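User: Predict the complex with S-adenosylmethionine.
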Amino acid sequence: MSDSDLQTQIIAARAYEESFVPALFGQWAPRVAALAQIQPGNHVLDVACGTGVLAREAVSRVETSGFVAGVDASPGMLAVAAELAPLIEWREGTAEALPYNDQRFDAVVSQFGLMFFNDPDQALNEMLRVLKKDGRLAVAVWASLESVPAYAAEVELLERLAGKLAADALRAPFVLGSPDELAQRIANAGFDEVKVTTHAGMARFPTIRFMVEADLRGWLPLMGVNLTEDQIEQILHEAEHVLRNYVNADASFELGAHICTGTKHR
Ligand SMILES: C[S@@+](CC[C@H](N)C(=O)[O-])C[C@H]1O[C@@H](n2cnc3c(N)ncnc32)[C@H](O)[C@@H]1O
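Assistant: Here is the predicted structure with S-adenosylmethionine placed in the model:
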């Protein structure tokens, strides 16, 4: 990767940390860490760690006797993660080929990454491989798009004003929204005591415009979709009217997620 490509990725990752982590992702890290039963002294891996919000939560739980690592495919995300928490071990790699030996970790956690992997089943095999016997897994995915009317309305708006590619980029985070299918995949990978729990959560962007602009200028380019300024202005203009029906007065709205847990007994 050239220096300028890396700089572009770092700028996008800083925007992700500033806009999306407080609005969407931050609230899930304590829940995922709790369901993985992370204890003082544990060795923990965060897969698809992004800028590291869940790995930082894990550090606060393992205390000084433990060890936390984060793996992500994006060097830009990892650069920002390392600025925020230099003492965590950050490694570039894919979830489908984790850069760790067998039976290295007491717990493997991952939030809102599984739906983006080229091969989610291979990634689950890898999570099992790097866990010690009796090690714990906790994986979070968003609930289905149909359960989040604000995003469903934004997807429709994008389909109408920017086309299918743009709409699909916003559908992508929600594609693993079936709890039964998620549990089946995790059991198929060889985990025992598989359980999915569904949790209420809130999206808290400061305004509708901020939310949609973060998607158009932040999320879509990460998914390879770049809109023109004219398209962006038209979508932002219409979004104010369309999304108002689906958000509270402070622009917040309900956004639930499934957290699947499992244990490695074999
Ligand atoms: C929506 S972000 C979630 C990041 C983080 N877990 C959080 O809660 O903020 C999805 C992350 O998955 C990473 N990712 C996508 N495909 C990957 C793969 N095959 N292996 C590792 N990381 C991947 C992306 O680089 C991105 O950082």
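The mean pLDDT is 96.
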